[in-house]
Write a sequence for this structure.
């Protein structure tokens, strides 16, 4: 009887995976509504996070070091996952601007697809950007400034992973390794599907 | 011969200046800016073979309106860029300017610099010495 109970609980509750790079949240955190615009000028809202996995990185196009490095790293994650024949649907990768004043949809339409043709750029006004970043534990704020137009923005370096229920599942802090992140993603996805 | 001689002397002089220098710069490159990006970052390894500390105090380049010295830092998960007045290279040591760390930051010129292009950088050190290096435009390290 005891063995049967143990077996039953083992079947119904899979063990959370041991991750190499990411931190899995003890319980997923659903995102509530927000309104951004994607790099094609189309609305990017909570609906765009449903029914697919999403990697999100928060940066700005005037950032020449950390942001291109992270975006190039995410492109490597994507290329790594594209080699996985068992993976039927690629996760979407979204670059959310923390500099909405300068990062227009037009600018994002040049910048974001450079790293991968399927990547999505999204920006919105401060209120809507904050409504998303606060839910995901992402911090940002203007820093060093020479003038009103020439400034730097401090921002969280983490990459977050949202599940197909539009809920925050895992956080990947720096340093980022594309192979480890790809492997962690597959493990988290497997765990999520086994838990359904 | 009269015309060639000054060039030879100059070449010999610059070679000896190089040989006397305690500073060696390797693997200088500038990351190709994505379309639409207004800023670029440059990287290199600077080796100081001398017995005294030396500092990189400034960089000029005909390719860029200006060049700044910066350091990216991640503190408590937040990435920030800190302007540097100088980058110190310890005696008999080296400093790597690399992604996520010390780097040069400069405005992206028009037309866009792309992989395969090269740019000249004039590095000025606290010793008063200036070293010219050629940096490749690359998509990745």
């Amino acid at each position: 009887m005891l063995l049967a109970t143990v077996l039953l609980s083992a079947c119904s509750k899979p063990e959370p995976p041991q991750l190499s790079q990411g931190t899995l949240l003890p319980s997923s955190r659903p995102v509530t509504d927000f309104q951004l615009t994607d790099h094609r000028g189309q609305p990017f809202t909570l609906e765009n996070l449903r029914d697919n996995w999403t990697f999100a990185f928060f940066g700005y196009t005037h950032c020449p070091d950390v942001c291109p490095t992270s975006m190039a790293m995410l492109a490597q994650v994507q290329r790594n996952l594209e080699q996985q024949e068992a993976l039927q649907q690629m996760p979407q990768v979204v670059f959310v601007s923390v500099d909405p004043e300068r990062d227009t949809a037009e600018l994002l339409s040049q910048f974001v697809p450079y790293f991968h043709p399927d990547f999505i750029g999204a920006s919105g006004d401060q209120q809507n950007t904050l409504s998303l970043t606060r839910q995901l534990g992402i911090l940002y704020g203007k820093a060093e400034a020479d003038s009103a137009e020439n400034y730097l923005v401090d921002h969280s370096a983490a990459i977050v992973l949202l599940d197909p229920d539009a809920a925050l599942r895992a956080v990947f802090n720096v340093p980022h390794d594309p192979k480890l992140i790809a492997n962690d993603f597959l493990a988290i996805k497997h765990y999520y599907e086994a838990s359904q | 011969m009269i015309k060639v001689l000054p060039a030879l002397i100059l070449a010999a002089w610059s070679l000896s200046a190089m040989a006397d220098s305690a500073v060696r710069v390797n693997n200088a490159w500038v990351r190709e800016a994505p379309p639409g990006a207004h800023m670029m970052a440059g990287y290199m390894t600077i080796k100081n073979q001398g017995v005294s500390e030396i500092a990189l105090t400034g960089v000029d380049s005909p390719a860029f309106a200006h060049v700044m010295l910066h350091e990216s830092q991640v503190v408590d998960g937040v990435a920030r860029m800190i302007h540097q007045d100088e980058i110190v290279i310890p005696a008999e040591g080296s400093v790597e300017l690399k992604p996520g760390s010390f780097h040069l930051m400069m405005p992206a010129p028009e037309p866009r610099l792309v992989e395969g292009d090269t740019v000249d950088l004039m590095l000025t050190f606290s010793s008063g010495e200036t070293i010219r290096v050629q940096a490749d435009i690359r998509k990745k390290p």
About this structure: Helices of chain B lie at 4-20.
